[in-house]
Amino acid sequence: MNGQNKRARRRTLAGPAALLDRVLALASPYNSSLLLLIVFLVVIAVGLFVIRDLHTTNVEAQKMYAGSVLGLHRIGELQYQAQETRRSTFYALTTNDSNLQLEYADQSREADRRVNEGISEYLLQARMPHEIELGKRLQRDWSEYLNVRNEVLASILEGSTKEAVNLDLKGGVPAFERVRQDLEEIKRLYDEQASQQLANVAATSRRTIFRLIGVLGITLALASASVWAIQRSKMLGAIQLAKLQMEFVASVSHELRTPLAVISSAADNIADGLVGGKDQLKRYGSAIQNQCRQITELVNQILLFASTKDRKNRYTLRPLQVSRIIDAVLDNTAELVQEIGFVIERRIESGLPCVMGDLSALSQCLQNLIVNAVKYSGESRWIGIHAFVHDSEERSSKEIRITVQDRGMGIDRLEMPHIFEPFYRGAAVTAAQIHGTGLGLSLAKSIAEAMGGTLSVVSELAVGSIFTLHLPIVEKQKSEMASVTSKPDPSIRT
Amino acid sequence: MRRLAGLLFILASAAFSIAALSFGPAPNSRLLPEPQIASEQNLAVVVNLSNPVQNLSMPELRRIFLGERSHWPNGRRITLVMMESGQPERAVVLRDICQMNETDFNNHFLHGVFTGEVLVSPKTLATPVGVRKFVFNVPGAIGYLRVSDLDPSVKAVRIDERGPEDKGYRLHVPPRTSK
Amino acid sequence: MKFSSPSPIRVNLALKLIGRMIVWRIFPLLLGILVSTTILRAQQPAAAAAADKQTLQLLLQRIDQLEARVKQLEAAKQQAAPVSLPFAPVQASAPPVSETELQTDSAVPERMDVSKTLLRMRGFGDITLHGDSQKHDTTAFSLGQLNLFITSDISEKFKFLSEIVFEGGPDNIFGETRGENNTFGVDVERMVLQYSHSDYFKFTVGRYHTAIGYYNTAYHHSTWFQTTTGRPFLFQFEDRGGILPIHTVGASASGLIPSGHLGLHYVAEVGNGRASRSPITEEPVQNVVDDQNHKAFNLALFARPDAVRGLQVGFSAYRDLLAPANLPRIGETIFAAHAVLVRSKFEWLNEALIVRHAPNGIPRVFNTPGFYTQVSKQFGSYRPYFRYQYVNASSAEPIFPDVGLRQGPSFGLRYDASETVAVKLQYDYTTLRGQPAVNALALQVGFTF
Could you give all domains of chain C from N- to C-terminal order, each with its CATH number? Predict the structure, then answer.
């Protein structure tokens, strides 16, 4: 009951923590890429900032041109046409020929028509109340002047030249003076607007420059930091790898030294004739055999790891019965398990479909898991192997899961992301002086992935670990073929 | 005195008989409007748009064109606009309104200025466009244009309650000769 | 010429003579005129139509030539630099002026060039070859009046008008001859400032022709305007023996009377009147100083009905108080009536007046009647005319005792040699009281320039 409660609690606690561990485990290999992405995004943001500021400056400059430069040109044209209106009226005074007088009258009217158009354009584009008020005042004053001008023209055409001049002096001159002042005021307004807009453009440019400098500086700093971080990460990785390799070498050396010492000792004794009888000779021989077997296993593991990394291994995939795989593994590890006094609980669901795989590889994979379970069980002497069908978390179909569970020391959460790395050995394991090469889990994961599956782990310190081999289910036809040569369904054995 | 009266009577009779010939329809005057020849156009009498006058009788028109009227009812001085000598429009005005020839018309104005009865001599312009523009520019101006030369810048007045587009309008001008 | 009081016998003889002349000479002449007029009138339309067509063609050709010439002149004018213009023209494509230029433009006083005026001058003159049957008169060429007619449109409402006349020969003022025969003198015959408010009110001040009758205001000092070689007796100028106050220095108001188709006009005048002293030793028109405070008044009314084109009928009344030397004051009243028909080709003038002089304290009133009638008709460039005039002043007339009876016909022919030159040939037969009748013939060239 206690074990079930503990298992339930472990499953609950393991949920969010497992998710975080999974994210971190996923993120950690991409630290460099993440930094580069951040730098890239910052550069994009900077670029967008700069583009926006440049665009704003451009718009300001265009507005300044349209509003002020064109406006000043318009005012200049208005002033000229207003003068032309007045001049043409006076030209009519220089002749007594009615036909010529009419021509000058036409010229004056044409010029005043252009002035009226110019004033209308100005009123259309005026936005500020002061501009509109000024435009309306100009329109009013111009209309008043035109009334006087029309009377002057009529008097000239009638032949009352003196009266025309008096009329112009009395009414035309002050009216035109008012128009002139209005135009001057509009011109002053345009000047002020131009100056204001120029100041805005200058301020925007300055702001843009400061922003650009600031942001480029930050970008440079970030990029430098990213490069430093990436370099450091790579260096640390290299250091770590070297360290791991040294540890592997040390571990391998250590693993080899013990059997070699035993073999050497036994061989020395035999060579020295210190062997008493056949029984002692047999014991020495058996010891040499065991130690040679261990050395052979170690070398095989190393060679297998090497071949996996070099992708030299060619697996022969064929449909396999799960029970057959488990039986093969249990056969291989029976002696080790019995020797240490472990109990293996074997539960295989009935009617499990076949999986595609290489029997020896899958056996090696499960064997590594079992060996680890044995090594890291601590005081516990129980190992459970369970095979069942489950929904795949990655695919929409079902999969075969083979779990190897122990009730040993468990794995620290911080070490979880690294346990499948080659040559990695946790601090607790090293502190507990548990021998190993650090290749077992890496090898098992490689094999699982080569079979089209995965290897996952759920662990809790001082509670135990469950390693799960996820294998895809084979297609029905291959499964039917495999079922012809399959062994009968296994039963639970202890 | 009786003889004197008799003498005067004889003289009067003789003069009347001569005058009767003049009273009769002059070769170029019309008592009734003649039917318009299809190729002829009507000659409109035009004034400034601000002029309140809408209709003029033929005698009034004659007085205006002979300078015997110097002001419009609104007080504005009348400025008479004529086309240059030789223009068919001018010939129609002289013949149908003033009932004078060119020499008589000029002498009339000269005499009028001489006696002080006529204040201002008519203005003379070269083209119908000039007449139209002059009338447009001068509030007191009066001139004449072919109906085809009219535009909204001037106003055509009615003569004896007849407009240029009405039947029985009295002023007709021959078509322009193409050059 | 001198006037004397006619006797009744002589008047009857004269009337008989006139009657015979009318029956045997004038009537056939008039009949001939009537017939020829009819014939000419029949020919005129066709001839006139043909002439009009030809004239039109010629005029059109002339227009083409003139237009081409105008174009040439305008092109030359555009190339030539403007001379002495108050404002130099600027090309339409000139760039906008700078601010300083604008300020300069507005600072320049924009006034008309005062050296230019609106003065117009027209001249009139005539030269006459005349001769008559009066004793001591000779046939001679005479320079007539050289008349400078000056107008100036001062403003829309004000106008200046003057007639400055250079005339030769002695002045004849109420029978008094003053001056040398062949010397010229200068007279400002008219000088008026005219204010025209509207057709209903015009105001004139200065020296002008008094609105007595028709002839005095229709004809002034130019013979070229007149059909005949000279003015009728009645309307002779004061310095030529005239009996009416032709000129007045004063003020005159005139204008239309709203009367619809009747065309009523009025004239109301007040002025210095004529000099009263007799014999006259000074200028009869009181230009500068009136010899008395009493002013002369004149009121005239005339109508120009629309119904009859060219007709004018009117009436005037003139009132003045004269104070001749060594005589009681004389109230002068002049009533005049006229009926004239004036058209471009025909005129018929009829005027009659009576001058009443009523000396204070004397019951007798001296009436001087007078009339004239004048008729003429245009035939192409020829205008034959006839005039008959009459004036009968009593020999006891206190102001102009020398006038007497004067009457007689005038026959003439005017030929317009050009638009500005007229040649007139006129025969006058004048009977005078107590004197032999005078036959006179005059050939006159009148012109304007």
Answer: 1-78 (no CATH), 120-448 (2.40.160.10)
